[in-house]
């Protein structure tokens, strides 16, 4: 088993409200399913360190990064916008979440046939260059992509995002960046009301209507894989949101665990062909805790390339 699971020390302590869907129980649900599936025993485990500010600045306006540090509260909760709150521990959790991506890149790039999954929160793909949004402070996946390009002198990195919501923040940061190809599926029209049509030629979208099934998802994203083979990324990153699951009330798509297994296995196949199997996956959404835990297990099994079907 060459899969390593990264966690961040304070990621389970960021808790703006027991009513908030993006809460610590998400990570406990994932850990529970990893244990009961037996995957936890055979995966490697890594404790992330906090991201350096200079690495955040690879994807964010330095003044925005400063403003997040300055707004971090000493007590209580402050709201950066209607969905995105900060408690005294949130900044630390966000720094661990973004740091996990960089650490996972380091580990994956240090050898061949390596995959990593970052079980971290807060998520990142709604955070724009200079704007917090949709539970996200720092864009973990965009930071990881730019970090990989800078520190390993890569010229081609792919980002695949199958969260039910469009990754507006990632698109905002990487649109027009010829070193990054983004493949993105999402419910449309839906929050955050972006993504279709695409804003630049380095972005491939697969908008899905409310009610779309796993079969429709597979059909819509099938064209990604030839595009990825043509782009020949040296590293593949995944914004892994599981809120397109049929049991997740956050969206209206109808994916199942086997769809996450399928897409993960397709990605692994391409990664084996073009980038020595190097994949870094980072948790984004997923708010039905049972479905989230089961889907992460299916995702990791697919990344591992096993033959098991669900
Ligand atoms: Zn989402």
Provide the succession of SSEs: EHHEHHEEHEHEHEEHEHEH
CATH fold title:
Arginase, Chain A
Alpha-beta classification: alpha/beta
Task: Note poorly predicted spans.
Answer: none
Number of domains: 1
What is the C-alpha radius of gyration, as a whole number of Å?
Answer: 17 Å
* CATH 2nd-level architecture: 3-Layer(aba) Sandwich
CATH class: Alpha Beta
Residue share in helices? 25-40%
Q: Strand order of the main beta sheet, please? A: 2-1-5-10-9-6-7-8
Distinct bound molecules = zinc ion
Tally of separate helices:
10
Structure, briefly:
The chain has 310 residues and is an alpha/beta fold. The protein has helices at 25-37, 39-42, 53-56, 62-71, 90-109, 140-151, 168-174, 214-231, 257-274, 289-304; strands at 3-7, 44-47, 78-81, 84-86, 115-118, 157-161, 180-187, 203-208, 235-240, 279-283. 55% of the residues are buried.
């Amino acid at each position: 088993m060459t899969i390593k699971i990264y966690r961040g020390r304070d990621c389970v302590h960021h808790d703006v409200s027991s009513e908030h869907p993006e809460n610590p129980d998400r990570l406990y649900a994932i850990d529970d399913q990893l244990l009961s599936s037996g995957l936890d025993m055979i995966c490697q485990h890594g404790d992330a360190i906090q991201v350096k500010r200079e690495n955040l600045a690879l994807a964010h306006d330095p003044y925005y990064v400063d403003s997040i540090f300055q707004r971090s509260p000493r007590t209580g909760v402050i709201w950066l916008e209607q969905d995105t709150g900060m408690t005294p521990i949130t900044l630390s959790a966000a720094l661990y979440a973004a740091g996990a991506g960089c650490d996972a890149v380091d580990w994956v790039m240090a050898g061949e046939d390596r995959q990593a999954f970052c079980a971290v929160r807060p998520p990142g793909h709604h955070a724009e260059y200079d704007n917090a949004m949709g539970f996200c402070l720092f864009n973990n996946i965009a930071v990881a992509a730019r970090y990989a390009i800078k520190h390993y002198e890569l010229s081609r990195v792919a980002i695949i995002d199958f969260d039910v919501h469009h990754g507006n923040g990632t698109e905002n940061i990487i649109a027009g960046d010829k070193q990054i190809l983004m493949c993105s599926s999402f419910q449309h029209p839906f929050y955050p009301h972006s993504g279709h049509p695409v804003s630049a030629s380095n972005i491939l979208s697969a908008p899905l209507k409310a009610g779309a099934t796993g079969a429709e998802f597979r059909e819509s994203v099938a064209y990604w894989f030839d595009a990825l083979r043509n782009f020949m990324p040296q590293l593949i990153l995944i914004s892994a949101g599981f809120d397109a699951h049929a049991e997740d009330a956050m969206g209206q798509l109808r994916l199942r665990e086997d769809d996450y297994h399928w897409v993960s296995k397709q990605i692994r196949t391409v990664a084996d062909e073009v980038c020595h199997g190097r994949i870094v996956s980072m948790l984004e959404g997923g708010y039905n805790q049972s479905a989230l835990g089961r889907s992460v297990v299916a995702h990791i099994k697919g990344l591992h390339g096993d033959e098991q079907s669900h």
